[in-house]
Write a structure and sequence with these properties.
- Helices cover 7% and strands 38% of the residues.
- It has 172 residues and is mainly beta.
- Strands 1, 2, 5, 6 and 9 form a 5-stranded antiparallel sheet that branches.
- It is globular and about 50 Å long.
- The termini are close together.
Length: 172
């Protein structure tokens, strides 16, 4: 009998107007980048320090992640046009059925400019993991995804980002 695991994740972005009416929703499968997979292996098998807080990032350039991206050289341009002073935390619930998500505590971005949002990422660690636009803080890029459809947003729109990752048996 064989067992294996394959990490698979999905980002969901919901866009609401300033009155709370849902305008759109898009979902996209992500890739766990090389740096993210190395982090998992180093923490669990090499005794490296665990990253305890992860942050959600939106990006505003038409970019498709391929796995070579890193925190220091992400390939995407992070969107910083939101009212919150720092990147929102990824506040996940405990794992269940080999899956973990922040559905109960979605990351929220209150836009303060017109932008087109193309994708999302999860970052953590380093000295400035919560700082918008930081790439020098020595953090870790865990995963990234380009949405199946870009989302045009304006000042006052509220964006809710959900991320669910599964490590279920892949049948191998």
């Amino acid at each position: 009998m064989k067992h294996g695991a394959k990490f698979k994740g999905i980002f969901t972005l919901e866009v609401f107007d300033k009155n709370g009416k849902k305008i759109s929703e898009t979902k996209s499968k992500n890739i766990v980048v090389d740096e993210g997979r190395d982090s998992i292996l180093n923490v669990y098998l090499h005794g490296s320090t665990q990253i305890t807080t992860w942050y959600c990032v939106l990006f505003e350039n038409d970019f498709t992640p391929d796995g070579d991206e890193t925190y220091a050289v992400p390939g995407y341009t992070e969107c910083e046009a939101y009212d919150e002073g720092t990147r929102p935390e990824y506040e996940e619930a405990a794992a269940s059925s080999q899956s973990i998500t922040n559905t109960a505590n979605k990351a929220q971005f209150t836009m303060n400019a017109s932008k087109t949002i193309y994708g999302a990422a999860l970052v953590g660690g380093g000295t400035d993991g919560n700082t918008k636009g930081d790439v020098a803080g020595g953090g870790t890029l865990f995963c990234a995804a380009k949405f199946t459809s870009s989302q045009a947003v304006i000042d006052g729109n509220i964006l809710n980002l959900t991320y669910e990752i599964s490590a279920a048996d892949d049948g191998v």
